[in-house]
Amino acid sequence: MAENKKVLIAEDSSVIQNLTKKILMMQNYSIHSAKNGEQVMKALEQDRFDIILMDINMPVMDGMECTKAIRALDNPEKANIPIIAITGNAKNYSMEDFKDAGINEYLPKPLNFDQLVETVKKLTS
To answer: 89 lies in a domain?
Structure first.
């Protein structure tokens, strides 16, 4: 089961963040959230997470930039956290771009919540 697995949701849309949070909490994940990449980096300084759901288009520091910053961290446990890219703008990026940035999986918006739960389970087990 997903108990004690900590998910960091990086998403600037409150609606998507709240829906995602509710869906994953029903699966017994512990949820933390951030509105931009800078907040993600601060959260990582203070805590450990099992997975990050990363919106690509966020203010301050976008998801691609943030993923690269995470992959460059000195702490190997934090630098290798599974990251799922979430974006409604995938046509601007190829799977190759995501892989180059260090993203493990990609989910398009609007989110398919069954696919989300399945992907999070796969990457945290």
So the answer is: yes
Strands, E assignment, 1-125: 6-10, 30-34, 51-55, 83-87, 105-108
Q: In sequence order, what are the residues at sequence separation of 6 or more whose Cβ sits closer than 8 angstroms to the Cβ of residue 31?
A: 6, 7, 9, 21, 24, 25
Which two three-digit tokens encode residue 7? Answer: 């998910």
pLDDT at 87: 87
Q: What is the pLDDT of residue 3?
A: 67
Please name every residue paired with 52 in a beta bridge, in sequence order, or none if there are none. Answer: 8, 83
pTM score: 0.95
| Domain range enclosing 72 | 6-124
